[in-house]
Structure formats: C-alpha cells, structure tokens
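**Entry details**
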Amino acid sequence: MNMLYPSIDELLKIIDSKYSLVTIAAKRARELQEHHNEVLEKYVSDKNVGKALEEIYVGALRIKQDEPAS
C-alpha cells in the first residue's frame, strides 16, 4: 500500500481547513504546471499536486493573510 506523503492529518495541523488546503494546493499545482518553478531541492511526489502539498508541509508555501479593512 502506498501512503500519501505528507499525510492529511499532518497537513491539517498546518492549514486547519480542508477547503483552504485543497484550494491552495490546486492553485500552486497549476502554477507548477505552467511555470515549472519548483522551490524544493527534491520532491517525493512526481505529480504537481503532491509537490504543492510537500511545499505546504515544509513551510515553503504559506497562506497569505488578508489585512483587516480599516
């Protein structure tokens, strides 16, 4: 059996919403597909979504918090 790396449980400790996690990973995967701008030296996954999840897991990809409206 092939286990997902990184695990969903570990990713949800970093980004506590499955919706946000999927949205961010999908957006980054599209960016990787279009621009091939990989930020990690080595990836476990060959697929762009997996690479995006790995970037989130190691802290190379973060959610940008919107500034509160004044």
Observations:
- The mean pLDDT is 89.
